[in-house]
Amino acid sequence: MLIKFENYLKFTKGLSENSIASYLEDIKQFISWFHGDYSEINKFIIYDYLSYLHENYDYSINTYLRKISSLKLFFSFLKLKENPFNNFDKPKREKKIPDVLSVYDIFKLLESPDENSFLGLRDKIILELLYATGLRVSELIGLTVNDYDKHYGVLKVFGKRKKERIVPLHIGIMELLNNYLKNVRPRFNKKRLNYIFLSRNGNKLTRQFIWQIIKKYAIKSGISKNVYPHLIRHSFATHLLERGADLRSIQTMLGHSDISTTQIYTHVNMLQIKEQYFKLHPREIKEDK
Questions:
Q1: Over the stretch 4-28, which tens digit does the pLDDT of each residue have?
Q2: Comparing C-alpha atoms, which of 41, 10, 27 is closest to residue 162?
Q3: Fold (topology level) of 103-277
């Protein structure tokens, strides 16, 4: 059953490997709890299951919602006569305001790789490209040389559910990328792969590797925050918004299907505005006595 469901997620729904893994883990967890006949499942059993999770696990609301989404898709796949999620009241999603790096910290991070080595140059263009485009890590490591259009200065990116979007590149990142493709990548391309970014042995880079190099250079640059790939993506969007970019443009560049997802960055921006207000407004400044 799980193998068929996995194939359904992969070939019918077109989900990414990471999404498929999450869905399968959620379903396995439910199966280990429920030992009855699927045809007997109703929304009250689902409520019991969620109560069980609440009592035994310290999950966030967003995690509950993901598990509900996994179960809903699973029961849809099973084609049950009565879907237990009909008229199901699910909890509301919590809107967690993302953290961001300051422009100063971003610049320190981008300048930390050693450009005198081929690996350092590769790492620099990876960091620069993440900040220049707001790409997800899965999108970055999936880029091929055919996805880069030098003439128009754009990247063709395949996001969630293989949805395609076009991301513009500024002249500085294009110069770095052109230099990398001409002088660095050929030294790594031992296995004749088409991916833009390769390991020293010629393999496709992994998500874990990108996490590792970001951690490495964050430590090297002396940034005190916990720096991870999505933090750079959040910083990209927030810094654009601070400088006057409109939400629709940011939504397109990030590949958000719903602008409500992008609107979270307006909350980040407002928090920073309030911080500056209380710090700098003459009526808030306390004179030294």
A1: 999 999 888 888 888 899 999 999 9
A2: 10
A3: hpI Integrase; Chain A (1.10.443)
